[in-house]
Amino acid sequence: MSGQRSPHHSLQGEWKVGVLPGVLVILLVIVVRVLGGLQRWEWMALDQGLRLRPAETLDERIVIVGITDADIQRLQAYPVPDQALAKLLRKIQDYQPQVIGLDLFRDFPIPPGEKDLEAAITDIPNLVGIEKVLSSEDSIPIPALDVWQEDQIGFADVIPDEDGGLRRVLLGTSTAGEEYRFSFSIRVAETYLKHHHRTLKNGVKDPLAMRLGQTELTRFRSHTGGYVRADDGGNQILLNYRQNPRPFRTFLWADFNSGQVKPEELYNRIVLVGMTSISQKDLVQTAAVNHPSTGLPGQIYGVEAQAHAISQLINAELEGRPLLTGWSEVLEYLWIVIWGVLGVLIKRWSRYPMIHILMVVVASAGLFGLAYVSLLSGVWIPLVPPLLVFGINGVVLYIFWLYDQGLRSQLQDRQQVIDSAFDAIHNGPLQTLAGVLRGVHDRNTSTSELEPQLQHLNQELRGIYNLIRQETLRPEPILGLSSDLQLGLTAPLHELLCTVYWETLNRDLPGFADIKFKIVKFEPMDERALSLELKRRLCRFLEEVLCNIGKHANGVTQVSVTCMQDQGYNRIEVADNGTKSNLISATKMGWGTQQAEHLARQLGGTFQQHCNTPPGHRYKLKWSVKRQPFWRFFLVRRFHQ
């Protein structure tokens, strides 16, 4: 062979340079994700996606009554005394709301007026209070006053993430005493939905989940969305914040004293009473809300967080507003693998940097779009890991691939020069030398006859030296012939083959001496899938076949050459009416046969030769012009360009 890389070696090199690094990147990103290294980035992507959603309407079902620093100054006391709080609750009840939620801890009386508050709690059946049931390093459980009924109390415990953000709602949990308690948000939602004939039950798909009416509240699991090995104790759901600069109507305590609250603004609604005071630090950290009412970036009041949780629960059942869920763990990792593979494929498919950049931009925009649309429908799909594997495989590895291709291209150019030189030597000086040796062997050539042949051999060798220099220095690929003619390979293939035919038959070879008839047919051929190097090899193939006739065939009087496209195939056929010399096997064409068979494999076609079959010899190279399979097109274009 001529030192060309076989498809096996090419595929092996491509595996090492393209596929293997891409697979390693996918595995590395998956490992980093499993270890929790991408968790914070995925939380940030979720927060950003929630902020970018279109603004929703104000939730008319929920009203917040805030206790501000001004109210504390007016009362000259904190915590708010029982008497003042009882008076506020009775005033709100006069407006006939369906539920009143008191988001204030009260584990012991705050005089004056402890009896007043107890009476208010007893007299208002739709009042729901809070307690704290979970303990931590910096907090202890806070029980409610004994006057509360069990179904009037819900815990206000929250489970912030490692970055402090609140993205989950705890609906139910077991206490240290093995008692199962319900959260404030589920108690308020349950009380409100009873008026709509919806009750709280166990889930159908998941018996351990809760179900409000017909809406099953999908439980948060340790791997949901971007979470990795998270604490999924109790019964949790993801918190789908309502996106609006003013999600809930808010009144101040002072508004009730000044008569600014109209009865219809609280009638049949959920009224939540809580602190809206910066100084008391009842704040929740979240980056998922635009324009927080606190004026502090990423922080909202605790009573607002409760309002978001309650709004999510009741509107999921009454309006079909989507709850926030995630994919299964298997589907998430399959999604990551798909985008990693897509990055590898884009690196293979695109041959030009600008096209590659366009494909990467379009695919990345598609990934963002899919994640965003999915979030709008309530499904949190991974964004950071697929973006990471796609970016590394499609951009970073592509840069390294370009560098590697540059080095390979230089080596390939040098190899092509060597191959061209070898072909030129084989089809030129070696043919001349074979004629000289045949004359010496037959002892029918005198010294005076040998001298011109040796001079011609000297000229051919010098011509090959010049050809090597020109092919090395000239940027445009060329085909050098033994006649010192140089052809640009960007010309149409049938024109190149025609030129090769006439130049070769003008050479001084013994088999050409008696040719009387030359039958030629050169028509345009489909060369869209041909690289310049393949066009060079096709020209060398025709030159080799003709030289083989001129060198080894005896009594040739007719040569027929056909190069054309016919019935979906390109074909090059050469035939003569001579007989083979005894010096060469009738079934071999030596080096030329090997080269022709290798060329046929590269084209996905066939090569046939029939020697000493009357009336002569026939050589036929044929390949399809139809759309080649991806793997063959990839081999041809990638390894021979």
List the helices and strands and how they pair.
Layout: H1 7-34, H2 39-51, E1 59-67, H3 69-75, H4 82-93, E2 99-103, H5 114-123, E3 127-131, E4 153-155, E5 168-174, E6 180-182, H6 184-194, E7 200-202, E8 210-212, E9 215-217, E10 235-238, E11 248-252, H7 253-257, E12 270-275, E13 283-285, E14 299-301, H8 302-318, E15 325-326, H9 329-349, H10 353-376, E16 379-380, H11 384-427, H12 429-442, H13 447-473, E17 478-480, E18 486-488, H14 493-505, E19 517-522, H15 532-552, E20 553-554, E21 558-566, E22 569-576, E23 579-580, H16 591-603, E24 606-613, E25 616-624, H17 630-639
Parallel strand pairs: 1-11, 1-12, 2-3, 2-12, 3-4, 15-16, 19-21
Antiparallel strand pairs: 5-6, 5-10, 7-8, 8-9, 13-14, 17-18, 20-23, 21-22, 22-25, 24-25
